[in-house]
Design a protein that fits this description.
With 300 residues, the chain is of the alpha+beta class. It folds into 3 domains: 103 residues, Arc Repressor Mutant, subunit A; 88 residues, Roll (SH3 type barrels); 81 residues, no CATH class. The chain is globular.
């Protein structure tokens, strides 16, 4: 098997360990089959040996758990390995072991936040969305650490800031967004549902930046940027509706047609003194409020 195909299997095995304390060879086999990769348990045992000896990934068998455990102090090893897999696949660089990875490590720096989050559930959720099937799962809230059982109609998968989210309708009719990396015990039922307002939900997310949508009105947002900051915004637009209204040597005026939300305010604040809200007045006031609160922290 080509090394890149093997590395892909290694990455999937690590994804399994990222959300489960342990995994048997059979569980790993079922997980890979869900990704259209049928492998025997004997082959998987060989892959684990390669991961341990060639890449220094400490995966050992735990008899008390009747499965393999990935021993690590934090997620750095997983993130580093997955980033190198992505790099070698994109750049066509050979990486056949830890020695090559260590050599490249001195030549490349990765963003530690750039990691796969919740990808193991994507295929299952996508099938549920396509076939309009109910899904149930456990979800852990980051703020409270509380785990809650949910059952809902999955409608949309959305990627935002290196994470995957699933949007759906709860049984009480409320629409909610869940981080896929915080989902466990995902189960897709045989029972199907009748989709209602799915186009409207998708449209709502198209009209905002990020995950926080509301029933607010669409606004024509006008931002005045310095020519330097404008180059960054042109290279990496913050919304699909963005366009340049006018441009001079002193400033560039951008227009965005969307529903203002928290993520938009954060994007504007990140540009600091390089950006000014011209309209609407409500957004301008909101940004000013945040700036005043920030300044107050330094005046105490």
């Amino acid at each position: 098997m080509a090394i890149q195909a093997t590395l892909h299997i290694f990455a999937l095995i690590l994804e399994k360990f990222s959300s489960h304390k342990s995994a048997s060879l059979n569980e790993l086999k079922v997980f890979l089959e869900a990704h259209d990769l049928g492998k025997s348990e004997r082959s998987l045992a060989r892959y684990i040996e390669q991961m341990r000896h060639e890449f220094g990934l400490d995966i050992v068998y735990d008899a008390s758990l009747k499965g393999y455990v990935f021993k690590r102090s934090n997620d750095f090893e997983v993130t580093l390995f997955l980033n190198f897999v992505q790099l070698t696949q994109t750049a066509g660089i050979a990486m056949e072991g830890k020695k090559q990875m260590d050599a490249l490590r001195h030549l490349v720096q990765f963003d530690n936040n750039l990691r796969l989050q919740g990808t193991e559930h994507l295929k299952t959720l996508l099938v549920a969305i396509q076939n309009k099937r109910y899904a149930s799962f456990k979800h852990t809230n980051y703020h409270t650490d509380k785990t809650t059982n949910y059952r809902f109609k999955p409608i949309l998968l959305k990627q935002y800031q290196y994470r995957w989210y699933v949007v759906g309708e709860l049984e009480n009719g409320e629409y909610r967004t869940f981080g896929c990396d915080r989902i466990a015990d995902l189960n897709v039922e045989a029972k199907t549902f009748v989709a209602k307002n799915t186009k409207e939900v998708r449209k709502k997310f198209e009209q905002v930046i990020g995950l926080n949508y509301s029933d607010g009105e669409m606004k024509k947002v006008r931002l005045q940027l310095t020519p330097l900051q404008a180059k960054y915004l042109k290279a990496a637009p913050i919304h699909a509706s963005q366009y340049v209204e006018s441009e001079t040597e002193e400033s560039v005026i951008f227009v965005l047609n969307l529903i203002p939300n928290y993520e938009l305010v954060q994007k504007i604040l990140q540009m600091s003194s390089q950006a000014k809200v011209l309209s609407p007045a409500s957004l301008k006031a909101d940004v000013k409020k945040h700036l005043k609160e920030t300044l107050a922290l330094y005046q105490k």
